[in-house]
Amino acid sequence: MSDVYLNGEMLPLEKAQISVLDRGFLFGDGVYEVIPVFHGHPLRLEKHMERLNASLAAIQLPVEITITEWRSIFDQLLSRNPGQHQALYLQISRGSYASRQHGFPTETRPTVFVMTMPLAPRINDSLDDVKGGTAITAPDQRWQRCDIKSTSLLSNVMHHQLALNSGATEAILVDAEGRVTEGSSSNVFIVRDGTIITPPRSHKILSGITRALVLELVVNDGTYPCEERDVSVNELTTADEIWITSSSKEILPIIELNGIPVGKGKPGGVWRHVAGLYQTYKAG
Ligand code: PDD
């Protein structure tokens, strides 16, 4: 059984308990982060902590934990729960109070929880081993603040289950205007005529740390042009390549969309190049 961090204490997972009046439980009133850790090194830790702080600020939840304190919590957890590749899961809710009231309590006592989770890297030494995933499209039924990494994930969960029910890996969401937003738990990239395209940052998507890393790698490399712009559902369904990105999925090529092969129905050449850049960065 693994050790976890809860409100200042390290303790075995089965001993970690919170109140049923916790606002995370009652309202989904909280935010979270998933930080991938490869060979013991958290990938882009500062960026994840910046996004956490942005999410906390957006929901007006002040938390007095410094980056040094966070690092010490992560180091302790990683040494107590050894493993080659893991993810740090970090969740902060607004805490528990005497009664259930929608309004924010005047005095805040957040619940702070961190655990490690095993992570099976999707991209290993041989890119030939990556078979790719499949996706469906679905109407995006979420709220207008998808930029906040909130634990209120019911729509995401339902979108994801829709994909699983049809045997697919991910649901790619499309807004009311026919524009691709993101996946139920990932960002989306397409390739058309050698150009890499991804929807722009906005309140409609989570600003993925993996998405930003991919864009940075592609720009620095300079082999392929890339654009952050709206992507229509028509551009998606006729794309040469589709990828989804996230801390746990890394850069996963989608080889079939709505039952129809994407491009040649196997991971594409542009994916291969960019996955190679990502792999080198990860190793570095
Ligand atoms: N999900 N969009 C959504 C809705 C997400 O839930 C995620 C990640 C991403 C990609 O973000 P990043 O590259 O920073 O992981 C985009 C995490 C992994 C999860 O909920 O488990």
From TrEMBL:
<keyword id="KW-0663">Pyridoxal phosphate</keyword>
<dbReference type="InterPro" id="IPR036038">
    <property type="entry name" value="Aminotransferase-like"/>
</dbReference>
<dbReference type="InterPro" id="IPR050571">
    <property type="entry name" value="Class-IV_PLP-Dep_Aminotrnsfr"/>
</dbReference>
<dbReference type="InterPro" id="IPR043132">
    <property type="entry name" value="BCAT-like_C"/>
</dbReference>
<keyword id="KW-0032">Aminotransferase</keyword>
<dbReference type="GO" id="GO:0008483">
    <property type="term" value="F:transaminase activity"/>
</dbReference>
<keyword id="KW-0808">Transferase</keyword>
<dbReference type="Pfam" id="PF01063">
    <property type="entry name" value="Aminotran_4"/>
</dbReference>
<dbReference type="InterPro" id="IPR043131">
    <property type="entry name" value="BCAT-like_N"/>
</dbReference>
<protein>
    <submittedName>
        <fullName>D-amino acid aminotransferase</fullName>
    </submittedName>
</protein>
<dbReference type="InterPro" id="IPR018300">
    <property type="entry name" value="Aminotrans_IV_CS"/>
</dbReference>
<comment type="similarity">
    <text>Belongs to the class-IV pyridoxal-phosphate-dependent aminotransferase family.</text>
</comment>
<dbReference type="InterPro" id="IPR001544">
    <property type="entry name" value="Aminotrans_IV"/>
</dbReference>
